[in-house]
Amino acid sequence: xxxAPSVAGPAPLVLVVDDEASIVDAxxxxxEKEQLAxxxxxxxxxxxxxxxxxxVAVMITDLRMPGMGGDDLLKxxxxxxxxxxxILMTAYGTVEAAVEAMRFGAYDFIAKPLKRAxxxxxxxxxxERSALVAENSKLRAQLAAATYREIVGTSQMxxxxxxxxRQAANSxxxxxxxxxxxxxxxxxxxxIHAHSPRSQRSFIPVNCAALPxxxxxxxxxxxxxxxxxxxxxxxxxxxxxxxxxxxxxDELAEITPPVQVKLLRALQEGEVEPVGGRTLKVxxxxxxxxxxxxxxxxxxxxxxxxxxxRINVIPIRIPPLRDRIEDVPLLADHFLRVYSAxxxxxxxxxxDEALAVMGQxxxxxxxxxxxxAVERAVxxxxxxxxxxxxxxxxxxxxxxxxxxxxxxxVGTPLEEIERRMILETLKFSGGDKRLAADLLGIATRTxxxxxxxxxxxxxxxxxxxxxxxxxxxxxAAVAGDADDGILH
Length: 488
Hints:
This protein is an alpha/beta fold. It folds into 4 domains: 128 residues, Response regulator (Rossmann fold, 3-Layer(aba) Sandwich), CATH 3.40.50; 162 residues, Rossmann fold (3-Layer(aba) Sandwich), CATH 3.40.50.300; 81 residues, Helicase, Ruva Protein, domain 3; 49 residues, Homeodomain-like (Arc Repressor Mutant, subunit A, Orthogonal Bundle). It has 20 helices and 14 strands. It has a 5-stranded parallel β-sheet with strand order 2-1-3-4-5, sandwiched between helices. Strands 7-8-11-6-12 form a 5-stranded parallel β-sheet. It is elongated.
């Protein structure tokens, strides 16, 4: 039996790792009788080579081995092939260590001396889980493909932008998306992912401005249990979640200098260091986006120059809607169909006068503002055709909308002036925090901070901005029963 046999047919591959040749040989014979393909390795390094070359469904490894132990092999294997299920073999004296290793992703453990029935049952359960995870990944990819919104636009500027994006998609180079708020940077990032070789893997979006500075590092790179106050359990960061897939960092200019350093290392070395943990190897494709000029941020010392050159490999500037006004009717018609169906309205067209008004408007909020305007018009429309009267006031009278004034009495505290300015700008932007920040000339993070502190409250009104919230990441431990006996 070769150490890394080729796998013929649909039989799933099980990798057996142990420094004792007799154990490897016995397990191999048992598993082959179960019509399973088997690969073997006598140490951790050989096992990693097998994992790199072949598609392993389940790995059985001894916990105590010379050199790289089973716990270290587990972590390396999960980083290299996250979907592989790992079963640990352990003597009675190290059962607690095996249970602890399950916190790092082991599926099960079996106690030595081994019993055939126990090994077969554990492997079968692990294979069932492996098949279920693979099926879930396939369904998620199909769902993403079904819900993926193709970019709408036929203008020359948009066609040129999409051509560059499609060429960039076939590479692994880092892409930097530039453009005003609301131009569709995340949509273009998803377009790049969908047309890349990683399209069947995860697309992990992160809005850096929506994450408080105190937890941004933990959210991106992960943390170990007890790494800081409140870290009651370990969790993977977004980089690990994006392993073999695409990580999209929106509002990149908002990340703090310490996080910039760790991001630079991740790009240079392909490694991330969880807070309080050890370095992990990750394979990710990075797409970044910002509505600021990063070259100016570098000049002012707000952004590292070496990091800027690392991410500025393929810059793509998305044109604002006012520069591709010929796309407005096409986009408006697209959103009309979407929201007419969503709100069960029989609205099917725009009046010519309404389209003319929309074509003359400057769209400071770009496509996001257009989408909000169309949805509002669909909801308020009382016929089958949207008229000028159904459009938002700022479209009907742009001068009045942009000339809106706020007056203050002499002696009004600066804090109150700041609060009202932010509140009124949020109302004007329809709750879009990124647009409000652009209009005020402040960082988007400042808007989030003011809202979270209660300094400004806008109730539960519409929010055009996209917020990223840390998802729950429970660690499920699955323990199997260990039988006594010998392998026979």
